[in-house]
User: Fold this.
Amino acid sequence: MKRFLIYITALLAVASCRNTESLVHNSILPLPSKVTAEKGKFTFGKDTRLEISADAESKRILSGVLEASPLTFSNSGSKSLILKIGDVQGIASPEGYRIEITPHAITATAKSGAGLFYAVQTILQSIDERGSVPAGTIVDEPRFAYRGLMLDVSRHFFGKEFIKKQIDAISHFKMNRLHLHLTDAAGWRIEIKKYPRLTQFAAWRSKPLWKDWWFGDRLYAEEGAPNAHGGYYTQDDIREIVKYAADRYVTIIPEIEMPAHSEEVLTAYPELSCTHEPYKQADFCAGNEKTYEFLENVLTEVMELFPSEYIHIGGDEAGKASWPSCPLCQKRMKEEGLSNVNELQSYLIQRIEKFVNSKGRQIIGWDEILDGGLAPNATVMSWRGTEGGLAAANSGHKAIMTPGGYCYLDSYQDAPHTQPMAFGPYMPLQKVYSYNPTEGLEEQQAKFIYGVQGNLWVEYIPTEELVEYMIYPRILAIAEIGWSNPAVRNYDAFSKRAVKAVDKLRAGGYNAFDLSREYGQRKEAARPANHLAKGKKVTYAASAPFNSKYNAGGDAALTDGIRGGWTYTDSKWQGFIKGGVDVVIDLEESRKISSVSADFMQMCIPDVWMPAEVTISVSDDGTAFTEIAKIRHEVTRDEGLSFKSFGWSGKAKARYIKYTAKCGPQKGWLFTDEIVVE
Ligand code: ACM
Assistant:
């Protein structure tokens, strides 16, 4: 919490605002439920007394928070900051609070220590440059019980001090879960006493950067060897992190991947895979009893370390490649009456759930745990979209919403050419903020939405600086989605508060993206393009249809004047997967033309490529075409996202224009947004 001392000092530099209500609204993030402004203000000073009336544990935590803040208190002052646990009228959540601010006292009341902690964050955020808080009343509670950040510490490892630093920040914005993705092919990150090879070997790899390792030899290394890169948390480290988090009302959710994403385990302990071959298998053998013994032993130690009610057991992206030919898997399927490998995965998850439940805990799994039958008490983390979460809610299971299109923070947050290389498409703060986890749900289903989470996978994010850059400020949007009433949320107002929060984060030593310098959307996408072919009919060759998922509005998309933005997922780019582009535009009459062009993009990770050859031809009868341009382009794999125009300029007269674009050797997708004819 010390870091917020710097935050508040930074606040002193921010211009003051005379209107009390707007001052409160301009500084509190996430937006509180209800603020009533009154005349006057409370000013902190040497004469402020602190009174905490709470159980000993809450008192210890809150005293610590205030001690680390810039506020100072006296024993016998004339003004008071009073924090007390008690009933709060009109508040349902145990995390809610009420603050009454008069010139003489600030009185915060909450049902729990967490509620008082959040009241303190609100007070700290409301203090102006003179140490004053405007008078009034704030009544506030979260919309969702679960408000999380997930950090992948497998693809690149980040030490405990860095984790604590992130706990400071997210708790300040009233987030209450940090989900650590502790195990994956790229490295096992938690000491398990019973299986020392997990940290003597599976936590270390031949290359420091994931991309060099993954696209290279993918070898693991012995701890201490000259080529060993990686790391892990000792059990003492874990206890320290868990305690640090608990002192900020953050629960750490540990994730132990199964049955897939487990190459590191299956190389350290090859007997746990179907073929017993190191370096060959990603999935545990679901037929072998040893697998269950291992997983239960690991989870036993994990549950001893993490008091969280919820333990994440992964479950995503299992290839199950060896299961159909594995005698033990086949035997298990026969014995258990399982008709396919999805049901075998479900058997494994349900068995693990039973074990976890027997220790009084619950499981969370990625939405693939729905396939083959959902474990009876499981909570689903919906990532492939919102469908998994909705399906879970429909069947009476809790769901945590973290759909890739809104909550995956490893995507570009600004114009790609201004940004470090990212894994996912353009997802600026505004896009994240536009997410509503219960949209389209009936009340009955909506009550199963347990919360929302931002996920940061770090395949391409090797440094602490870059982790913070990708998290902040987008996690603030997740914080507000998770806490505030959607009826009063408004992006323009939020972004002003977010700019201030970014200033404070940066002053506090966080490498947050500088929102005040956001470049924004692709300029072509800002307004409709007007050109000769706008609104004119486009005929697609039968051999080169557009893909129905990326149809951008259908037959009219390439001449509708609507230009695409920084991502092919914005419904404005038309996608072609097999035959490339092959279209004819009918201008309805013979016209003088001086240019024909179309933009394409390349992003190799999702298999989106530039064309290798573009041909432009013209005709007056729609049958006999004369080629006016052939553009060849060498398509090579690169990093990041790029855009390029393929066109012709000159003098011609024609009624019909034929535009074809062919894929290079990589095949994959072509995306274009408009064929512009001038
Ligand atoms: C995931 O992104 N594989 C959960």
